[in-house]
Design goal:
Order of helices and strands: HHHHHHEHHHHHHHE
Strand content: under 5%
Strand order of the largest sheet: 1-2
Number of strands: 2
Distance between the termini: 15 Å
Largest sheet: 2 strands, antiparallel
Shape: globular
Structural class: mainly alpha
């Protein structure tokens, strides 16, 4: 296969935009959760995403062999129904700002995963920055949690972190597929498989999704979460991942906690305690350090399978 030139700056920009839009997902999700269960909200989110991706399914033939279809199906299962149902169940138990800030653990999870499974190596500066990001997330998770509806909870925060650990395998499996196939094919067909899985599981387990009594505000939030926070973000992220190492791109996921926490505090009126603010600052500084000062060492020839 011909060598594709890497556009490092554009790759970082693409991943940063994806992460920023993802940061709006908890905000839109919380609006929809006021009128429906987390499972129905996730199903609607992906149905709206598929409306945008449908033209890409028509214009791009997949060209995957049997083994690659199996890899894509596994990635879709982990990345869509498993990750999102756990993540938004966690959101239903905590606040937007806390859930978003917990995403600060993702760069650490992704850097470790890329080291173990993709043979990437961060330098000392990178690991120092990731340690700071972890400390920031710990400050948020272990800070004082109030009791009652609409308050942050340790259970909700930890479920969000669990969903991110699951997302690691979705990201790495997609990256492997994109060594041979375009980001558009991997994104469109991967989300199609994941949406079909949701269509089979959610009505069976949680009943038919509501329609008659859903407000226009909730429908708009669902549409935004599907179009902006799912279809657009996944296309941007998957393309960015072809241009920069996963261990470096991962820290740009910290744009998500920044956006999500700002929306939670300034739009939804949520409260962050001193430890949460301190943790958020640590996460933000770690993101800047890792993207400007650290370099990942990537082997020239990745194993094909």
């Amino acid at each position: 296969m011909p060598v594709i030139p890497k556009h490092r700056a554009m790759g970082f920009l693409s991943c940063a935009l994806a992460s920023s839009f993802w940061g709006c997902g908890f905000f839109f999700g919380k609006i929809a959760l006021a009128e429906m269960s987390f499972a129905h909200m996730v199903l609607y989110r992906f149905l709206f995403a598929m409306i945008v991706l449908l033209p890409l399914l028509v214009t791009h033939r997949p060209g995957l062999n049997g083994k690659e279809w199996g890899t894509l199906a596994l990635a879709s299962f982990l990345g869509v129904p498993v990750q999102f149902l756990i993540q938004f169940y966690g959101l239903s138990l905590t606040t937007v700002s806390h859930a978003a800030l917990m995403v600060g653990t993702m760069p650490v999870i992704l850097a470790v995963g890329a080291t173990l499974f993709a043979h990437e190596r961060l330098d000392a500066t990178g690991w120092f920055a990731l340690a700071g990001s972890t400390a920031g997330a710990a400050l948020i998770a272990l800070g004082r949690h109030a009791r009652g509806a609409g308050q942050p909870s340790l259970t909700g925060d930890l479920l969000v972190v669990l969903s991110l650990a699951i997302a690691l395998f979705w990201i790495l499996l997609n990256k492997r597929l994109m060594d041979r196939h375009s980001p558009i094919v991997v994104t469109a067909y991967g989300l199609l498989l994941g949406t079909l899985m949701l269509l089979l599981w959610v009505p069976l387990r949680y009943g038919m999704p509501p329609m008659a009594h859903v407000s226009m505000k909730a429908w708009l939030a669902l549409a935004a979460s599907g179009v902006l926070c799912t279809a657009t973000t996944t296309l941007l992220w998957n393309w960015g991942m072809t241009q920069v190492p996963a261990s470096e791109a991962g820290v740009l996921l910290n744009m998500e906690p920044l956006m999500g926490s700002l929306l939670g505090v300034f739009v939804l009126g949520e409260h962050l305690g001193p430890t949460a603010w301190m943790g958020g600052c640590l996460i933000f500084v770690a993101a800047i350090t890792l993207t400007t000062r650290s370099k990942a060492h990537v082997p020239e020839h990745q194993p094909a399978g």
